[in-house]
Amino acid sequence: MESTLLDRPIITFDAPGGPLIVPPLSPNGIRLSLVVPTLNEGENIAAFLRAVRDQLEPVAAGRYEIIVIDDDSPDRTWEIAASLASEIPALRVVRRRTEKALSAAVIRGWQTATGEILGTINADFQHPPAVLPALLEQMNRADLAIASRFAEGGGLGDWAAHRRLNSRIAHTLGRVLLPHAFRRTSDPLSGCYLVRRDAISGVELHPLGFKTLMEILVRGRIRTIGECSYEMRARKMGRSKLRARHWFDFFFHLLRLRRAAGDGSPAQ
């Protein structure tokens, strides 16, 4: 679909619909498809995409793609991102107009992806793009590589006290209600990770709210997991999308996955 920014043609693509099922790989030489979900990230997106490109070019030049999947942002994040296409050839921009949940956005992005490894990272710089090469290296021997705040060397950086408390409560709930997933990694609530396509392709996913990694840990065919530590930072520009209702989504997602896991074995 075409739009304009400063009178230049801008090309974006509409998001797919239907069940949240990642298709199998059709080999085309792309190793990594990195999905960047966005909503009103116009202040961050250009600098962020350039930072991602700078990290991936030395380790995966010509073998990666960056997919921005934007929820039709009122600040036209999608348009700003698409204007960088000539500067970042690996970039594609997808507009999502009928759904709003972050976790579903990630999977919609993966449905359009062509890489053998699928990943996600937030566009607000709370996940540093510098962690991406280490995650990609982990994928040489793992089905899933997670950027962890709680692995040795990681941390919550300059997070406010109330956010630290919220994180502790969320992890405690997870360990009680979903021990199978929460004992497999130090950071099962991470929003930055890579996963092999063949570990999740053909599986109908049912995410709720903000967290996709729990869904992958329970429903995916995950045998080996790697971790890379990082220090999370508070957002510098734009506004957080976290709302009180996301706590309800998180709690009900835990209950849904607990039923799916049944006796504690991975749900297929």
Would you mind describing this structure in some detail?
The chain has 268 residues and is of the alpha/beta class. The chain has a single domain, classed as Alpha-Beta Complex (Spore Coat Polysaccharide Biosynthesis Protein SpsA, Chain A). It is 32% helix and 18% strand. The chain has 8 helices and 10 strands. It has helices at 45-60, 77-82, 102-112, 132-138, 161-177, 179-182, 213-219, 244-261, and strands at 2-5, 8-11, 13-14, 32-38, 64-70, 91-95, 117-120, 144-148, 193-196, 225-229. The strands form 2 sheets. It has an 8-stranded mixed beta sheet with strand order 3-6-5-4-7-9-8-10, sandwiched between helices. Helix 7 (213-219) runs parallel beside helix 8. The N and C termini lie far apart (36 Å). Residues 1-9 and 263-268 have low confidence and may be disordered.
What features would you highlight for this structure?
268 residues; two-stranded antiparallel sheet; globular; Spore Coat Polysaccharide Biosynthesis Protein SpsA, Chain A; 32% helix; single chain; eight-stranded mixed sheet; alpha/beta
CATH architecture descriptor name: Alpha-Beta Complex
| Beginning-to-end CA distance, first to last residue | 36 Å
> Overall pLDDT, averaged?
86
Overall spatial form: globular
CATH class annotation: Alpha Beta
Give Rg in angstroms: 17 Å
Give the strand order, joined by hyphens, for the main sheet.
3-6-5-4-7-9-8-10
Number of helices: 8
Structural class: alpha/beta
Unreliably modeled segments: 1-9, 263-268
N-to-C SSE series? EEEEHEHEHEHEHHEHEH
CATH third-level topology: Spore Coat Polysaccharide Biosynthesis Protein SpsA, Chain A
Beta content comes to 15-25%
CATH-wise, what's the superfamily? Spore Coat Polysaccharide Biosynthesis Protein SpsA, Chain A
- Please provide the count of β strands: 10
Instruction: Please give the share of residues in helix.
Output: 25-40%
